[in-house]
Sequence to fold (352 residues):
Amino acid sequence: MEQPIFTTRAHVFQIDPSTKKNWVPASKQAVTVSYFYDSTRNSYRIISVDGSKVIINSTITPNMTFTKTSQKFGQWADSRANTVFGLGFASEQQLTKFAEKFLEVKEAAKLARDKSQEKMETSSNHSQESGRNTPSSNQVSSMNGTDDEKISHTPETTALKSENDRLKTVIEQSNSNAKKAETELQTLRESNARLIDALQEANTSLENWKTQTHNTQEENNTLKKKIAELELQCKEENQEKERNAQLTLRVQELEAELQDKEQELENLRKQAEIIPQLMAECESLTAKLQAAEQGSKDARGKVLALQSEVDDTHQKHTHIKTELKKFMDALEGKIDELHEVRQGLSKLGIDN
Fold:
């Protein structure tokens, strides 16, 4: 009877039979994977069931090897099932525990195989010894044909009988083992049929999965296109928002310029209202300017006349200065003469 000795959970994969390279998922999600021990057959198996479908039924042999291909993934090859199983674990610790259990079960299977070979060799040796002993006993019996002689060899006859009984027991056990082997063969055939059905279901599921994957990929491509279109639209909307913001800013600037222009226009209107007054003042100033120009012309004439008079006066003044100088020179001469006369008179008075 089989009993579970170790259980864990993992994603199950099988190697693609066509390429022998790619992994094909055997389960849609993590499933239970267990080691089973069959005490009647002294064998170990790894079994995993997804719902009602058996996805792993692998008997452990001493020649199998479990290989860690990454921190969370391991695999082993099953020559009987003609496939390679792969397990993906949630953590490296779970993978390590599974690998250690695989090694332990492998060693146990090796010990069971060695014990079975020893039993077979022991049975074969006993059969050969009994075959050698039986002819000798017959030979003794044929040589000793009297009853007294037979009685004298009773211990040997007893040993032969016990050996024959043991051989019968061995033959019965062999027949029983043969029946068990036939039963196991029938069980294996039934398991093989179930596995073929499971394989067909797996292939059907694989085709469905491929179809779903293809449809999903098409949907993903469609969604990617839509996402790209939406991103382009968002980009265009962002660009439009930037343009709108720039236009809004430009409109604000134009409104500010318009207000400045309106203020200037209002100032010009106010200035236009005083234009007639300014025109009148300008005409008055023009008339005054013309009168001033005429007066300036007259003044220029007078200035010219005065300049002529000044020139004449200057000439006369120069002549007068010359004459005055001459007169002063003459006067100084006369004064000197008077001074001398005074001195002479003074001297005369002193003398008198």
